[in-house]
Amino acid sequence: MSSIKEHRFNLCFVLAACCLFFFGCRSSENEADESDEPEEVLQLLDVEYESFQKIVGWLDRETLLVHKGDHQSHDLSTHNLFTGESNLIYEDQSYLLSVEISHNNQQILFQEVSDEGVFLNIIDLDGEISHTLSINYSGYVTLDWNSVNPELIFLSHYDYNVEEETESILVQIWDLSDNSLKQRPIASLYPHWYTSNVYVYVDELEGRHLYVGDIREENTDIIINRDVRDFFLHDDTFIGVVPSDINENLVYLFHEYPFLVGDSVITIPKVSMNNEPMKPHMTQANRNGTILGVIAEESVALEEELGSYSLQQLNFSDESTEDIVELPYDAPVSLSPDERHVLFGWRYEYIIDLRSGDMQSLINGPS
Predict the structure, then answer these.
(1) Taking the alpha carbons of 201, 205, 208, 210 in that order, is the dihedral positive or negative?
(2) Cα 127 off chain centre by
(3) How far apart, in whole angstroms, are the C-alpha atoms of residue 232 and residue 321?
(4) In which region does residue 57 sit, left (phi positive, over 0), alpha (psi from -120 to 50) or beta (all else)?
(5) Under a CB-based contact definition with an 8 Å cutoff, are residues 207 and 226 in contact?
(6) HSE on the CB side for 54, CA within 13 Å?
(7) Residue boundaries of the structural domains of the chain
(8) In Å, how far are 67, 126, 292, 328 from 78, measured between CA atoms?
């Protein structure tokens, strides 16, 4: 009887050992597979530093839209970060000013200035023009493309009245369905679409209050918050910037998801210009996804000094921030669709690997 028990024990022991060996091999294979995964090496732009204008943004997780140009011509092209492949999309003997990528990443809207006039053009990724509109303004315009109804685009800029010698803000809506422009009385250069008809903005002329409006109604914009001085908006995510009423060196980032439904708040050092709080540069690539921000290390008045900054992840779930990497200065950021890389700089000329924290320039030349 004891020999039978011993035999069973030995059999169980052998089976257990085999299982451990099997899973150990599988684990080693998985680790080997992970280690054998080829490292993605970022490829620099093949462009002369003098002709580089800017990186417009992401077309997908590995493709950038690049704007180049000189005094003779300007062009738009794609650049693959990992293969280095570049494809020309559009080129003309003109100057390209404001450029914006559509929310589905399939179209490009840009302002073109030439001897023939000033035009807004929309092209697809093959460079074919689908819409064009003549406008009477040769300076940079602010563009905001409606993500819900892509046939509506905000166009805004300063408007100078020569006879009255006054300057005001002109906001128009470009309706692609009939190629028309309709003026909208909005006191902001930066109105943002929230739905197909509803928009929000901060009044830049009186009081700096947060307003909401509806294009289906005339002159019905209403104040919804007297404390919000600026805001970040991406899909359903709304983050309002509110000065602290307790500490003059702090501001609150109020996170609302969806809009007007209070969620949580993060306190950060105040960056100000002429005592007005400045909105930190923030980015979000996906609906309800990771939010990153360029946050000051301590309170700073920009008219006195530039300050020091770091890229931080804003975790509104537990109202905390997480340092990712120190930054050389304050500048815009843009998160990739797969949330693995961040473009940084006033021309998005740097890229940050969020896994390693490494930052490198995408162009050769002075930095």
Answers:
(1) negative
(2) 23
(3) 17
(4) left
(5) yes
(6) 17
(7) 156-226
(8) 9, 11, 25, 27
Q: Is residue 155 exposed (0-12), middle (13-18) or buried (19+ Cβ within 10 Å)?
A: buried
Give every CB contact of residue 233 below 8 A, 6+ residues apart in sequence. Answer: 192, 194, 200, 239, 259
pLDDT tens for the chain, residues 1 to 367: 444 334 443 434 433 444 434 444 444 444 444 445 557 789 999 999 999 999 999 999 999 999 999 999 999 999 999 999 999 999 999 999 999 999 999 999 999 999 999 999 999 999 999 999 999 999 999 999 999 999 999 999 999 887 877 889 999 999 999 999 999 999 999 999 999 999 999 999 887 899 999 999 987 899 999 999 999 999 889 999 999 999 999 999 999 866 666 779 999 999 999 888 999 999 999 999 999 999 999 999 999 999 999 999 999 999 999 999 999 999 999 999 999 999 999 999 999 999 999 999 999 876 5
Of 138, 57, 141, 137, which Cα lies nearest the Cα of 103?
Answer: 57
Counting every residue written for the chain, the total comes to 367
b/e burial code for range 221-240 (CB count within 10 A of at least 16 → b): beeebeebbbbbbbbebbbb
Beta-bridge partner residues of 199:
193, 213
Task: List the structure tokens of 23.
Answer: 């899973």
Distance of CA 158 to the CA centre of its chain: 24
Instruction: Scan for tokens 């100000």, then name that residue.
Output: 272
For residue 277, which of 254, 301, 296 has the smallest C-alpha distance?
301
As a whole number of angstroms, the distance between CA 187 and CA 209 comes to: 11
The kind and range of the H/E element at 2 are helix 2-36
Cα–Cα distance measured from residue 358 to residue 344, given in angstroms and rounded to the nearest whole number: 12
Structure tokens at 131: 């819409």
- The DSSP symbol for 323 reads E
The amino acid sitting at 153 is: I
* Residue pair 295/244 in contact by the 8 Å Cβ criterion: no
Q: Which of 170, 90, 78 is nearest to 123 (CA)?
A: 90
Whole-model pTM? 0.87
Residue tagged 């980015």 (tokens): 283
CA-derived radius of gyration, the chain = 26
Q: Phi and psi for 144 in degrees, rounded to 5?
A: -140, 115
